[in-house]
Design goal:
Strand order of the largest sheet: 8-13-12-11-9-10
Bound molecules: 2'-deoxycytidine-5'-triphosphate
Catalytic activity: 2'-deoxycytidine + H2O + H(+) = 2'-deoxyuridine + NH4(+); cytidine + H2O + H(+) = uridine + NH4(+)
Distance between the termini: 61 Å
Helix content: 40-55%
Number of helices: 19
Oligomer: single chain
Region (Disordered): 1-21
Cofactor: Zn(2+)
Family: Belongs to the cytidine and deoxycytidylate deaminase family.
CATH architecture of the domain at 289-493: 3-Layer(aba) Sandwich
Domain CMP/dCMP-type deaminase: 65-163, 312-452
Length: 521
């Protein structure tokens, strides 16, 4: 971990402020929406779905013995790719979805929004199938953007139904040419220095720093290792490494105009850059066996024992916030925030019980022009010309532009990349948000214009910050599960029962066959 202080992505980095003062590159909205759609495709499968697909794989589903049905299910699963979706209205994110076992992302959006999809822009991580497209164009959407790789009905799966995939691609084209909605690929090249900036800031972000602080002896640069792994993983998922194959796909999905150079190589370069950026941001909230977002007070974790999120979901939402932070207008530091809530019962969405409430990043009031407000920070002497009285914080924007009400009876949570300041803490509590997932590097800091004193004293809202899990429990639990008593029992008891069942059935089997064994002996 000592390496963390000196190297990042193979070269030395100075601090964000040293290297890029006053010239922070900004992620375009289109690229932010595209990245979030890709990221939503990676939303961790929820427990119910995981179990169901496991059962299907083991042949334990309701249609046990019905070979045809089994074959259809497994072909379907191979052929239909999970898809992420970002719903945007007036250039603001109004919802985040992903396919579930039963429903495609487009259908979920339709169920949830109906005709409110009118005039919305939809960003898909894969070109949607005809069944989704016909409904969403019918709802009057304005624009449908999709990632130009393997579509939702996969053209890469080697199943007997690949003909169907081609037929579906044709139907999609027909729907596209006969609809008013603009169905297109919206990818923009990253602005100059964006990648370097993301590398530097990811490496320096609160979560990595916190781990570096509390894990000082290890010299494993797990950030770089994690990043390399993510790059490989996401390239496999979102990229078609074979150029010819990629061209064939583009031709089949009506993008023959992108198959010629320089368009083809530009497209691939833009795709690669976005994948690299996503992998870099994702590695800034690392998956590490003994670390996670934990509530440090035991009484507090007991109180909310039934409510904590699985680590992989908490981490997923924090990466959403990290992506949002790259749209900041603050030249010094980007902050992102996203609010989710949990329904009491299962959602039709691939996000399980979780549903999106709102998101934001720190910026000047809507509509302000470049020279309207000062950008100076606390290092400048004159307090009158500092930014702090003008900038709207990430949490404030997330609350202002939320698309759903925060219901007092439901568990709602905010994920914010920087510790909530004294201005925001009462807002979060007042809004009825039940949990805060954040970094705590700033806790207790006092400055003339912005301080972080109230977070530590905050009561009635559970605070989850990156910390080390107790070794005893971490060894017993799966890596990505938040430790709290209920989860512990939820996981351990069924596992014990399962093992007990197995032993019991083996014992019965042995008893039944014992005479035979004796006979043969
Ligand atoms: N939870 C938070 C915390 C802060 N901010 C925003 C408001 C400001 O735009 C910026 C605060 O900027 P600072 O200059 O205080 O941040 P630094 O951490 O860079 O300060 P310092 O240089 O003192 O370390 O972050 C936010 O949106 N949400």
């Amino acid at each position: 971990m000592q390496n963390l202080e000196i190297t990042g992505a193979g070269r030395s980095v100075s601090t964000q402020t040293d290297s890029m003062t006053g010239q922070i590159p900004r992620l375009s909205k289109v690229n932010l929406f595209t990245l979030l759609s890709l990221w939503m495709e990676l939303f961790p499968a929820v427990e119910g779905q995981r179990q169901k697909s496991q059962e299907k794989e083991e042949g334990k589903c309701g249609h046990l013995g019905d070979n045809e049905e089994m074959a259809r299910v497994s072909t379907d699963r191979k052929q239909v790719k999970k898809t992420g979706l970002v719903v945007v209205k007036n250039m603001k994110i109004v919802d985040l979805h992903c396919s579930s076992e039963e429903l495609h992302a487009g259908k979920i959006a339709l169920i949830k929004h109906g005709s409110r999809l009118k005039n919305c822009d939809l960003y898909f991580s894969r070109k949607p199938c005809s069944a989704c497209l016909k409904m969403i164009v019918n709802a009057g959407v304005n624009r449908i953007s999709y990632w130009p790789a393997d579509p939702e009905i996969s053209l890469l799966s080697e199943t007997s139904t690949s003909e169907d995939a081609k037929l579906d691609a044709k139907a999609v084209e027909r729907l596209k040419s006969n609809s008013r909605a603009h169905v297109c690929v919206l990818l923009q090249p990253l602005v100059c220095c964006m990648m370097q900036f993301v590398e530097e800031t990811s490496y320096k972000c609160d979560f990595i720093q916190k781990m570096a602080k509390t894990f000082p002896d290890t010299n494993i640069d797990f950030y770089s290792k994690c990043r390399q792994e993510r790059i490989k993983e996401y390239e496999l998922l979102f990229f078609v490494s074979n150029e010819e194959l990629h061209k064939q796909i583009l031709m089949t999905i009506g993008l023959e105009n992108l198959c010629e150079n320089p368009y083809f190589s530009n497209l691939r370069q833009n795709m690669k850059d976005l994948i690299l950026l996503l992998a870099t941001v994702a590695s800034s909230v690392p998956i590490c066996k003994h670390y996670g977002f934990y509530c440090d007070k035991t009484e507090q974790s007991n109180e909310i024992h039934n409510q904590s999120l699985p680590q992989e979901i908490a981490r997923h939402c924090m990466v959403q916030a990290r992506l949002l932070a790259y749209r900041t207008e603050d030249h010094k530091i980007g902050v992102g925030a996203v609010i989710w809530a949990e329904k009491k019962s299962q959602n039709c969405d691939g996000t399980g019980m979780m549903y999106f409430i709102g998101c934001g990043y720190n910026a000047f009031p809507v509509g302000s022009e470049y020279a309207d407000f000062p950008n100076m920070d606390d290092k400048q002497k004159d307090r009158e010309i500092r930014k702090f009285r003008y900038i709207v914080h990430a949490e404030q924007n997330a609350l202002t532009f939320r698309c759903q009400e925060i219901k007092p009876e439901e568990k709602s949570m905010i994920f914010v990349t920087k510790c909530p300041c004294d201005e925001c803490v009462p807002l979060i509590k007042g809004a009825g948000i039940k949990q805060i997932y954040t970094g705590d590097i700033d806790v207790g800091r006092k400055k003339a214009d912005i301080s972080y004193m109230r977070f530590g004293e905050l009561e009635g809202v559970s605070k989850f910050t990156v910390s080390k899990i107790h070794i005893f429990f971490s060894n017993m639990l799966p890596i990505n599960v938040v430790w709290y008593p209920a989860t512990y029992f939820n996981l351990i008891i069924p596992t014990l029962l399962k093992s007990f069942n197995k032993v019991l059935s083996q014992f019965i089997f042995m008893c039944k066959h014992l005479p035979n064994y004796k006979f043969s002996v």
